[in-house]
Amino acid sequence: MPGDPTVHSELAALTRHFEEVDQKTDREFGIIKSDLTAVRLQVGNLDQKVDRLESRLEELGQKIDRNQTQIVQLRLAGQDPNTG
Hints:
Layout: H1 5-76
């Protein structure tokens, strides 16, 4: 059987099929890897935006606290905080 042309033909066909599947898998892996890189970049960008937003919210909270303190002080002093 070592010289059987049918066996050699089937072996060659299986080898070609394996190589085709292997190449397809490599291409698909490359696509997934590229997509993952894009997602990582987007996550990094979103992380930076969240950091900036947190900072802005903190500043806004401090400003609100200052304004509320001023309102309380004006009311304690008998002044209307809605007038000028």
